Amino acid sequence: MTDDKTSASAEQLKGSVKEAIGKLIGDARVEAEGRRQKREAPPRGAGAVRGR
Question: Which of 1, 18, 41, 52 could make an SS bond with 34 (beta carbons 3.0 to 4.6 A apart)?
Answer without folding.
Answer: 18
